[in-house]
Each structure stands twice: as structure tokens, then as C-alpha cells.
Inverse folding.
């Protein structure tokens, strides 16, 4: 990185404005996490929505914490809880605070660079739309015990036949690593963690869900509305992921997308393309947030 001049004076938000934005963010986050929080009390499980809290393992409190992003001062915030939060420092105006972009980028340099590399390369690639969500099918191939306590829509024998009758081409390591041993050699690709940035592409549902993970990992650099947008995208993708899976999730309100049929394949690809557009738009917003942080910190 080359050193560049830091911003002389950050834009400032009046207390009335940033507190209103914070409150709106908290209300939106509470609505998005209400089901999970309720199920934590009742002990119920939801095989679709729970994934966003069990696999990614981020608490609702993280989603609820609003950040303005780097390069913005929040006035009259000295007495607010965020004045003591990690990665916040006093601003130029008395009583104001701002994100300490320089400290965050210094402490998380390797992680930030790796995340940006994945986001940039994924967004730059053409989407691939011929996988038909078969990664979920490969995760139960020739297995009698499954990750989810949900019945298979077609039963085990027909599910195995669907896998064997298709070309499996999963490009996402964190999906591929859950393939059954019998399914691994059936995949056209053999993704690894090291090759992640070279293989991910915007048509992949799991890569789209992961935009949420990357936004979380970038913490206060990412504005709150971008974080919640990424969470909403991940939730919407997860519904298609399970609707198109071999599981029968109709009891939870998900109409099957029968990818073993021509009509189901067409529906999957149509929605997959929409998610590719949404995920790329969010990738660019996350990358923009990092670019602002770098300018604010005086590094490029």
C-alpha cells in the first residue's frame, strides 16, 4: 500500500440524524431476527432460517449494532455507548466520535485484503448458472443419516439417481467440503480454501450468502444498511437453497423447486440470476466502504 493524504475533515452527522438512523437500523434488525430469538426461547427449530445463525454463528446483537461506516463523524456522541466501543475514537469536533479506520485496517490488514480479493474477483467473473443447486443433493448422496432432520422429498434412492443423472459442478469450497465421500469424485471441480478467490463466481448461491459473512468481518467499516442488506440477501438465498434441495421443507412454507425437472431448472436459474445481480451490487458497496476507509486512513 502507498501512503496517501488523510481526509482533512470528515463529514459530520448531527445527533438527531445519526440517532434516528441508529434507531431505524435497530428496528429493522430486530424484525429480521425476531424468529430466531423467539425460537431460542421455545426450543423450536427452523431448517431454513436457523442456518443464518448456526452456520454463520453471528449473534443478533452484532446485526443490531449500527455503524455509519468510515469517514463520518457522529456529533454529540461522547456520552453514548459507542464512545467506548472498539474501533471508535474521538472526532475532530468536541464530543464527536468516528470509526478508527486506520487502526482497523492495520490490525486486520491480511483479512481485509483477502476479503477484498474474493469480492473483487467474484464480481468481475461471469455468473455460471448450470449447477441447479445440486450441492445440497451431493451432501446426502448415498447416506442414510443427513445433516437436517427433515425427510427427503424423493426418498434416498431417487435422490441418488438425480445426483447420478447430472453433472455436478460446484465451485464453492464451503459447500463442497460437506459433500459425502461418494459424491466428491463426481464434482467437476475440486475446490480448496487456497483457490477460493480463483473459483468463486456470482451465480453461486453460497457465494451470495457469504457477502453477509464478509460484511460482518469488516465490522465498523461497513455501513449498517449494507450489512442488513447482505443479511436479507443471505436469507432470501437460503430459502431458494432449501426449496431446491432434496429435502421436503414444505412444512415451513417453502414450495419445492423441483430441479430434477425442466420447469424446476428454469425456475432455479431465473432466481439464481436475480441473486447474482443483487449479490454483485452488494459486493461493490462493501468494496466501496473499504475504499472510503482506506482514504480516510490515508492509505491506498
Amino acid at each position: 500500500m502507498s501512503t496517501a493524504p488523510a481526509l482533512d475533515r470528515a463529514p459530520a452527522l448531527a445527533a438527531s440524524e445519526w440517532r434516528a438512523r441508529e434507531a431505524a437500523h435497530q428496528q429493522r434488525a430486530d424484525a429480521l431476527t425476531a424468529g430466531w430469538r423467539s425460537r431460542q426461547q421455545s426450543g423450536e427449530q427452523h431448517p431454513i432460517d436457523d442456518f443464518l445463525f448456526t452456520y454463520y454463528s453471528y449473534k443478533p446483537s452484532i446485526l443490531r449494532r449500527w455503524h455509519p461506516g468510515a469517514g463520518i463523524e457522529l456529533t454529540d456522541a461522547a456520552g453514548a455507548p459507542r464512545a467506548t466501543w472498539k474501533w471508535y475514537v474521538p472526532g475532530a469536533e468536541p464530543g464527536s466520535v468516528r470509526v478508527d479506520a486506520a487502526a482497523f485496517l492495520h490490525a486486520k490488514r491480511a483479512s481485509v485484503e483477502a476479503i477484498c480479493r474474493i469480492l473483487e474477483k467474484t464480481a468481475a467473473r461471469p455468473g455460471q448458472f448450470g449447477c441447479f443447486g445440486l450441492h445440497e443433493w451431493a451432501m446426502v448422496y448415498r447416506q442414510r443419516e443427513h445433516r437436517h432432520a427433515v425427510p427427503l422429498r424423493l426418498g434416498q434412492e431417487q435422490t441418488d439417481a438425480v445426483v447420478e443423472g447430472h453433472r455436478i459442478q460446484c465451485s464453492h469450497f464451503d459447500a463442497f467440503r460437506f459433500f459425502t465421500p461418494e459424491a466428491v469424485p463426481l464434482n467437476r471441480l475440486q475446490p480448496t480454501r487456497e483457490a477460493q478467490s480463483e473459483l468463486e463466481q456470482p451465480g453461486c448461491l453460497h457465494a451470495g450468502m457469504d457477502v453477509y459473512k464478509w460484511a460482518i468481518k469488516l465490522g465498523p467499516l461497513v455501513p449498517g444498511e449494507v450489512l442488513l442488506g447482505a443479511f436479507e440477501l443471505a436469507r432470501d438465498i437460503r430459502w431458494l437453497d432449501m426449496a431446491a434441495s432434496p429435502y421436503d421443507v414444505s412444512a415451513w412454507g417453502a414450495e419445492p423447486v423441483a430441479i430434477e425437472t425442466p420447469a424446476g431448472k428454469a425456475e432455479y436459474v431465473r432466481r439464481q440470476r436475480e441473486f447474482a445481480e443483487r449479490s454483485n451490487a452488494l459486493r461493490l458497496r462493501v468494496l466501496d466502504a473499504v475504499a472510503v476507509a482506506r482514504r480516510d486512513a490515508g492509505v491506498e
Q: What stands out?
A: The first strand starts at residue 12 and ends at 13. Confidence is low (pLDDT under 50) at residues 1-7.
